[in-house]
Amino acid sequence: MTTQKEKIKAFVSFTSSTQALATRMLKEFHWNLDQAVDAYFSRAPKPVNNSKIEKIFDEYCENDKNVILVNGTERLCADLNVDPNNVLMLVLSWHLESESMCEFSRAGWIKGWSKFGVQSLQQMRDTIPELKKDLSDPAIFKQIYVWTFGWAKSLDSQQKSLPLETAIAFWELILEKDKYIHLDLWIEFLVNEYKKSINKDVWSLLLDFMNTIGHDFSGYDEDGAWPTVFDSFVEYARNKLSLL
Q1: Could you tell me the residue range of the domain that residue 63 belongs to?
Q2: Is CB count within 10 Å lower at the N or C end of the chain?
Q3: Please, which pLDDT band fits residue 47 given cuts at 50, 70 and 90?
Q4: Considering 85, 106, 134, which residue would you say is the last residue of a domain?
């Protein structure tokens, strides 16, 4: 009988993939090597014609700037049937390596869409709903979340921090309130008590904070290396919720 190690080795040999991916695929198909290999190749991005992707880019870019800007982004969203304010456009911007809001470079556009294996507007349109899975993958979501700070700051790149109202708008966009149950209370605290701009450390660590504090804040370590704003928030929240 072929051992699991032998099947992993065979899978890697057939697909040139990593052992980690081989193990995951084989487990998914209950260690049926043939089914796992077939599934791998059926899911793999198909070769794309970059000239077709570039041609679509040219339809939306500013002719004299070689970049898609606000007007082009608005037309793109209309053609993709997605609201510009939908969180999926934020996810797409991350995939397309956008450095500023409503701005796409040719290089990022080609690299991002090639990764998806699409080369037509309809295929791009079909890809948008699939981006939801990135919001459910903790590792990918964290990358998108941390990236969002710099992307949002592009509204005023001279500042090191995000204006409070801007940070709140993006938190409300990217963080699901049914998952991050203290988000409303956090925003209330910021508006009523903190009243300051949000630096990169606070932005980045909020996700870890929300994932560790627990419903009753029992997971919060007051002696930990959290920014002081989190100490103040926990005190505010406990008083507000009568948890002291």
Answers
A1: 50-134
A2: N
A3: low
A4: 134
**What CATH number corresponds to the domain at position 96?**
1.10.238.10
Q: Tens digit of pLDDT for each residue in 61-78?
A: 987 778 999 999 999 999
> Helices 33-43 and 4-15: crossing angle, nearest 10°?
30
Take residue 7 and report the two structure tokens written for it: 């099947």
Please state the separation of Cα 82 from the chain's center in Å. Answer: 17
Same domain, 10 and 55: no
CA angle 133, 112, 158 (to 5 degrees): 95
Contact predicate 76/89, CB 8 Å? no
Would the pLDDT of 104 be above 90? yes
- Mean pLDDT (the chain, rounded): 89
**104-105/67-68 β-pairing:** antiparallel
CB 219 within 8 A of CB 211: no
Give the closest residue to 124 by CA, choosing from 57, 65, 204, 64: 57
Report whether pLDDT(1) > 60. Answer: no
pTM summary value: 0.79
